[in-house]
Structure to design on (193 residues):
């Protein structure tokens, strides 16, 4: 008999739909939802209002440095995130944990009969359109558009790297732009819980 799931880990880049899926799963299962956003943030989205440190971050750093810093931030967060996963599992609390700091290369070794792991991704056009819509890009001034574009570039690179890492580490990757694939994932995970 297959063991029941007690934890679900959801990786993926910004705006790919991790929080939406995690919330749906947690609500359907009655499980605790945890987000890496609540545990430590690097400069986030330059919208709806641009905070000065966020504007400085995106305007002063090269795209390469922004991507490098994101990975370093995730690497620095990982020991605490892994500790949370082990504490929740050890205490037999059921949880859905989502966030871009849950990189596929980190969570793949934790996947077991009791812990499911998945990486959401989407093609560049889908993600760019989603982020521009959320940021109200068409209404933004040129300076704000420049900051939004740098965030989008960072997110698209991260999305591509996460998808490649999921493949390399044998972690299931689901196209978040495909509603049937996301619905199928939801059904599979809830049926195992």
């Amino acid at each position: 008999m297959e063991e029941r799931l007690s934890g679900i880990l959801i990786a993926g880049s910004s705006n790919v739909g991790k929080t939406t899926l995690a919330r749906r799963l947690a609500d359907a299962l009655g499980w605790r939802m945890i987000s890496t956003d609540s545990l430590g943030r690097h400069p986030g989205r330059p919208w709806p209002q641009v905070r000065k440190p966020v504007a400085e971050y995106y305007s002063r750093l090269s795209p390469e440095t922004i991507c490098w810093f994101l990975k370093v931030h995730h690497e620095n967060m990982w020991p605490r995130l892994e500790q949370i996963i082990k504490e929740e599992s050890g205490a037999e609390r059921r949880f859905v944990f989502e966030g871009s700091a849950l990189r596929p290369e980190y969570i793949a070794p934790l996947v077991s009969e009791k812990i499911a792991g998945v990486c959401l991704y989407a093609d560049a056009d889908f993600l760019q359109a989603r982020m521009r819509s959320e940021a109200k890009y068409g209404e933004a001034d040129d300076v704000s558009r420049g900051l939004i574009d740098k965030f989008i570039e960072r997110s698209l690179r991260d999305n591509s790297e996460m998808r490649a890492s999921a493949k390399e580490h044998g972690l299931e990757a689901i196209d978040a732009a495909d509603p049937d694939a996301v619905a199928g994932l939801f059904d599979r995970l809830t049926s195992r819980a």
About this structure: Helices lie at 18-29, 52-60, 63-90, 104-107, 124-135, 142-168, 179-192. The mean pLDDT is 94.
